[in-house]
Design brief:
By secondary structure, this protein is mostly helical. It is built from five helices and two strands, in the order ααααββα. α1 runs parallel beside α5, α2 runs parallel beside α3 and α2 runs antiparallel to α5.
């Protein structure tokens, strides 16, 4: 992949991620304040776990791409300061757009540099940007399936939901 091709792909993925961010914020905003301990299975994250995971990991993935190196993922315990959906929305709005802007500023050469994801895989930086979009959408989808059992309503995601019609 040439640097110019990487930059073209990154521009597309950045626009895609920016579009998805609006939906992710709506899903986070829809999380009810109570029942954050809900989980559909003992192996699944709790509602609070996902509420923390989405803003922390979205920022982390984007920052690692922009920095050109992966560091250990963020601590998602109570020490992270996200104790409810409001905290998650505030963190998301503050940190994720700024991290995405850092990626937007990367050169084609930076985007073709091979990064090592903590010894698990190696790929060009632009490939990890694609993974960041998929990762965010995946966990947002998980959280959206928690909303009704938690007593909330599902916002429109790719069109109206049964709760928004």
């Amino acid at each position: 992949m040439t640097p110019q091709e990487a930059k073209t792909i990154a521009d597309f993925l950045i626009a895609d991620f920016a579009q998805e961010m609006q939906t992710t914020q709506r899903v986070l905003e829809a999380v009810p304040a109570d029942h954050l301990d809900y989980r559909p299975d003992a192996k699944a994250k709790t509602g609070l776990g996902l509420v923390r995971h989405i803003p922390l990991e979205d920022e982390w993935l984007l920052a690692c791409v922009a920095d050109g190196v992966f560091v250990p993922p963020p601590d998602d315990s109570d020490a992270c300061g996200i104790m409810n959906a409001g905290d998650a929305v505030a963190r998301y709005k503050e940190k994720v757009p700024a991290a995405l802007e850092r990626v937007r500023g990367m050169s084609g050469e930076q985007l073709t540099a091979v990064l090592d994801l903590l010894g698990m895989m190696q790929a060009p930086a632009v490939s990890f940007l694609a993974m960041a979009v998929k990762h965010s959408v995946h966990h947002r989808g998980q959280l959206s399936t928690y909303l009704r059992p938690m007593g909330g309503a599902v916002p429109g995601i790719y069109g109206p939901s049964a709760d928004t019609q």
